[in-house]
Amino acid sequence: MGLWVLRLVIMADSVYISVNLTKPHLEFLNLLDKEEIHIFKLSDIQKQFDRKFKNLNEILENLVHKRLLIRIEKGKFCRPTFKNEFVVGTFVVENSAIAYSSALNLHGLTKHYANTIFIQTTNRKNKKNILGASYKFVRIAPHKRY
After folding, report:
1. Which of 70, 61, 35 is nearest to 49 (CA)?
2. pLDDT tens across 40-69, in order?
3. Cβ neighbours around 141 below 10 Å, total
4. Domain limits, the chain
5. What whole-number distance in Å separates Cα of residue 37 and Cα of residue 78?
């Protein structure tokens, strides 16, 4: 008897994963390069450009599968070369800013680098690890934001 290995792949329902890059995949990557987009939301891509991509979800799933894009969370993606953890942290939650010791470090006011990046926001969000960085989201009242 042989040993069976089960590989679980989570992706959108009924998405065809192609073996090679197709013309729409290349067109989408060229658009990202041309516009210098390194981090984006699916909804922003659909609104921002005149060019409409048929089956954009399928294109994104294929590019994630081929490791040409990284899914940060549902509907949010970045290029594999994008490594700014401060931008990623504020990108995943609306109305947010780098805060506390993370802000001091960002502006060069301390040499201490914490293992956790603090993000202040008016929204509720649980702690999260994204691209190897640990984030703690601290909720504040909306009137304290500015």
Report:
1. 35
2. 999 888 888 777 788 899 999 999 999 999
3. 7
4. 23-78, 85-141
5. 8
Phi, psi of 88 (to 5 degrees): -60, -45
Contact (CB, 8 A) for 117 and 110 = no
Counting Cβ atoms within 10 Å, is residue 59 exposed (0-12), middle (13-18) or buried (19+)? buried
The strand pairing partners of 76, in sequence order, are 41, 73
Compute the residue count for the chain: 146
Q: Tell me the two tokens of residue 53.
A: 């991509």
Q: What is the pTM of this model?
A: 0.81
Tens of pLDDT, residue by residue over 61-88, are 999 999 999 999 999 999 999 999 999 9
* Tokens at 18, concatenated: 């192609």
